[in-house]
Amino acid sequence: xxxxxxxxxxxxxxxxxxxxxxxxxxxxxxxxxxxxxxxxxxxxxxxxxxxxxxxxxxxxxxxxxxxxxxxxxxxxxxxxxxxxxxxxxxxxxxxxxxxxxxxxxxxxxxxxxxxxxxxxxxxxxxxxxxxxxxxxxxxxxxxxxxxxxxxxxxxxxxxxxxxxxxxxxxxxxxxxxxxxxxxxxxxxxxxxxxxxxxxxxxxxxxxxxxxxxxxxxxxxxxxxxxxxxxxxxxxxxxxxxxxxxxxxxxxxxxxxxxxxxxxxxxxxxxxxxxxxxxxxxxxxxxxxxxxxxxxxxxxxxxxxxxxxxxxxxxxxxxxxxxxxxxxxxxxxxxxxxxxxxxxxxxxxxxxxxxxxxxxxxxxxxxxxxxxxxxxxxxxxxxxxxxxxxxxxxxxxxxxxxxxxxxxxxxxxxxxxxxxxxxxxxxxxxxxxxxxxxxxxxxxxxxxxxxxxxxxxxxxxxxxxxxxxxxxxxxxxxxxxxxxxxxxxxxxxxxxxxxxxxxxxxxxxxxxxxxxxxxxxxxxxx
Length: 525
Ligand code: ADP
Description:
about 15% strand, 12 strands, about 525 residues, Beta-Lactamase, alpha+beta, binds adenosine-5'-diphosphate
């Protein structure tokens, strides 16, 4: 059961003057009772109980007020019965009715007033706690927050709009002082600890104006002005600020603008320091580029046997032709026509050797990637030629199946070739343990849709285990003793950087199948 609380809980320990008021109210009620019961004053004396109710209204709870009203009504009825008996006269009965009605109305009004007061108190408490919560979030949050007054700048920008200016960027170009002017008109009202830490300052006074913290070539403030100018509700940007010690910091900026223009005097600006993230990302890109280069070198290393063979042939031919040329020259008279033929062959063979060396160098070179039209059929055929000796050494049949009407794709040739060499080398290694007569690689090239071409490299090896299939494209996933497990990871990231994809599966008839989907138009990084 709930305890009956008669005194307002907010005043469990009534102040001395409230005890005085309550005592006075009781004395007044007793006096009214005495006069009403034991004197024959012919007036609605009981009405004076209303004063008792009014006096105690502040101090009592709703239940206390009801109880006091009930007591006063009972007392006035008791007085009536004592003074007039049960028959009573008409006038006295009417006076009693008036008094009871006055008490009931007063009681109802007091209760209504009490409820309204309680609601107000509750509302104030909620407001206070919400304000405290806001302050806690503002002051203790790890995000740098500023409270800034943008009202003057907004008024200025709206005035420009009213003058018929619609392109603020162009206007700022023609009026170089505009941005500076606006920055000077945005005072900071408050900044939290994280904001001061971000700027490397101790005294909040130093942050009143943002001028010295905004890098001179930073365009973010202009973009923020454009957002206000265009009545946007949010602004997000990336900018550079200068900390107190002079270091540059890259920050992400987020501002939410109030709906009501009157509230532009308190706009919250949030900033996240992304300097470290940007640096890490830069280092990551550099590391990735180096890794791609290292992997390319490894690919060339894997090709070395093939290259040695390729070079052996023209170099051998060079020697033979040089010797022949010498013989024709040694004749008496020298056979100049034969000399000329041998010389032509020497030139042709040196050209071939030079081409081979050139293509190896271009694979190793760290030049900027060039997107050019690439015929995929030609590229696969060239790659087969490049790997000819490896294919022969492993006794692997190599088939190309291609649609005749295939469009060229705009791609970085060397990257696609590197992926192909990786896939073919993996296939060769996977087939090492199966009988020579059953080893084959099949490359299918066909349109995937109107914008993409698919290249599938399938082999007759054991296929991909379910474990490996899950992690195939993750770095360091390898089943080979001397493998690094980076090849496929690099191939996929290299392709994805240009909008291509690389996927793997087991073919329903056995063997692994890798599928590259290359867009006809490569995306630039
Ligand atoms: P690595 O060749 O250094 O192991 P890769 O990323 O190129 O690194 O390959 C990862 C793993 O994927 C290989 O170790 C191998 O187990 C598996 N794999 C790749 N290609 C094939 C294939 N054609 N058949 C079977 N397994 C393959």
